[in-house]
Specification:
273 residues; alpha/beta; D-Maltodextrin-Binding Protein, domain 2; 2 domains; 5-stranded mixed sheet; 11 helices; 19% strand
Length: 273
């Protein structure tokens, strides 16, 4: 059985999915056809229900939970790993400033809405282009994610605010960035098998740190191994292996903040024989 799998080309995704996609583990008769796209495109796919299994922003999950259940493994949550609002040192930003965002449905944009509600002039920009948009003064500031957290300083930009830090200090929970969902309409035994295989793929990545490097470099926008390793260390952690109650509570809180009930959003394998 072949399943479509949506993921970003970023190192944290290719790192954890390498064993699954390239069958470095026994996939038990399942085959995964990867669909690489930036996070906002994945969000749009998820909202339309286009893919069997997919990465999405937790902000987008509030718009697509009718289509997907959240798997326990594969998520990006944590502390000190949130989006950053950055600008040129010479720029003064205010309520009239135009802010580049990596997509309307991204958690980055949701955090900007929550903590800077008066910043209403926004421009959707591919996440990897936001730094250049700021440097070329096409926007006044931007919210950066992924590898750009590690490169903005050397490009001459400065941090205005750490949006993840604002979330953590105001809620006490880790910042829920993105997760992996499986179609609700999928047979329960397939959902359970995918959950088990994804966990095995994450464990394989943890136990064979360098085995996925070629696969990561094939898709990453940043080929510097130090940056790649920093990226993985930041976004792949204990929550990637299992959400745990604290991770689930953070996701429920995000749903609450946008006014959406979080009932029956998690896949529960205990009910599947």
């Amino acid at each position: 059985m072949k399943l479509t799998l949506g993921l970003s080309p970023c190192p944290n995704d290719t790192f954890i999915f390498d064993a699954l996609i390239n069958q470095k583990i026994d996939t038990e008769g399942l085959e995964f056809a990867p669909k690489f796209a930036d996070i906002e495109q994945l969000n749009l796919f998820a909202i339309k229900g286009d893919l069997d299994v997919t990465k999405f922003s937790f902000s987008a999950f509030t718009d697509c939970f009718q289509n997907y259940l959240l798997l326990d493994s594969g998520s990006a949550l944590g502390r000190a790993c949130g989006p950053l609002l950055v600008k040129k040192p010479s720029t003064i930003i205010n309520d009239n400033s135009e802010i580049a965002i990596p997509g309307n449905y991204t958690t980055a944009n949701l955090l900007l809405k929550l903590f800077y509600p008066s910043y209403s002039r926004k421009k959707e920009v591919l996440f990897s282009d936001i730094e250049n948009e700021i440097l070329n003064e096409k926007v006044d500031a931007g919210v950066i994610i992924h590898e750009n957290r590690f490169t903005f300083l050397e490009k001459g930009l400065e941090k205005v605010s750490d949006l993840g830090e604002l979330w953590e200090s105001s809620t006490g929970t880790p910042i829920p960035l993105g997760g992996i969902g499986i179609k609700r309409e999928m047979p329960a035994y397939i959902q359970k098998k995918v959950e088990q295989l994804l966990r095995k793929s994450v464990l394989y990545a943890f136990n064979n740190r360098n085995a996925s490097l070629d696969f990561i470099k094939k898709y990453s926008q940043e080929l510097n191994e130090d940056v790649i390793n920093q990226h993985i260390d930041l976004y792949v952690n204990e929550y990637t292996l299992s959400l745990s109650e604290s991770g689930k509570n953070a996701i429920k809180l995000l749903f609450k903040k946008v006014g959406v009930k979080s009932q029956h959003i998690f896949f529960d394998s205990s009910f599947v024989t």
